[in-house]
Amino acid sequence: MHDLIYCLSVFTIISTIIPFIRHDYWIFRVFEYPRLQKLFLNVVLVILVFTYSFPIEIWEKTVVILLLLNLIYLSYLIFPYTVFAKKQITSSKNPSGKQNLKILIANVYQDNKQAKDYHKLISECDPDVILLVETNQWWAEQMAAVSVNYPHQITAPLENTYGMLLYSRLPLKGEVNFLVEKDIPSIQATVTLNSGQPVQLFCLHPKPPVPQESTKSTKRDKEILMIAVKAKQSKLPVVV
After folding, report:
1. How much is the pTM?
2. Could you tell me where the beta strands, DSSP code E, fall in the chain?
3. Helices and strands: H and E segment counts in the chain
4. For residue 162, how many C-alpha atoms fall within 13 Å in the half-sphere facing its CB?
5. What is the pLDDT of residues 147-164, one digit of tens each?
6. In whole angstroms, what is the distance from residue 194 CA to residue 103 CA?
């Protein structure tokens, strides 16, 4: 039990340190994402250390100190996303106003065949704009009925899990782009609100840096940066 606790503690600490290494290989990027999971594991390990394996040796005390520092750092990273942090975007006081835009975004998981669940979700949420990703031709056909209430569409169904379907009941103009890779689409569009205010939409779903998708994060980072530049240069309100 003692050895397992300290081995997991060292692993948790290393998993936080690795992303500080500026390299685009997947092993250096993948540990950026599970921050909440690492925080949970960190808390459990701290409890176990002080309950079952109180540090006595110098190396044990060093690991525990690093584990506590790791806990503080992970808490700092996650705090802005908790209910205790100040909101960056305040809740709308008039959710049905002409200046508002309601968007539903869903990763359908291409092999999933529960299209009816998404029709139900759309009915329940009643969004102005719908973006579905990981959509192939089968999904495009299953969602065809959406056209009745969402006549404005920009679609790029693909069989590689990177297809995109964009539907809008508000006026929509735009195009499908392949910014970095010829089989990874993104959509740049302008939707016009009921008030007449145009809003710029950037829809993207880049490859994550994991072995089965892409061993390096270079292309993903490039696409995100390209969209960031476009968003900064836009004179319209922007949603990415």
Report:
1. 0.76
2. 103-107, 129-133, 152-156, 164-168, 172-177, 186-192, 198-204, 238-239
3. 7, 8
4. 18
5. 999 999 999 999 999 999
6. 14
Whether 92 shows a pLDDT value over 90: the answer reads: no
Predicted local distance difference test score (pLDDT) of residue 97: 74
- Tokens 């960031």 locate to 228
**How far is residue 90's CA from residue 4's CA, in Å, rounded to a whole number?**
45
Structure tokens at 31: 């540990």
Looking only at the bridges linking them, the beta strands covering 152-156 and 164-168 are: antiparallel
| Domain extent listing, the chain | 2-81, 103-239
Cα–Cα distance measured from residue 134 to residue 165, given in angstroms and rounded to the nearest whole number: 9
Structure tokens at 107: 């990763």
- The model's pLDDT over 106-123, given as tens digits with 9 standing for 90+, comes to 999 999 999 999 999 999
The answer to whether the CB of 81 falls within 8 A of the CB of 108 is: no
The two structure tokens encoding residue 238: 């922007």
Q: Give the CATH H-level superfamily of domain 103-239.
A: Endonuclease/exonuclease/phosphatase (3.60.10.10)
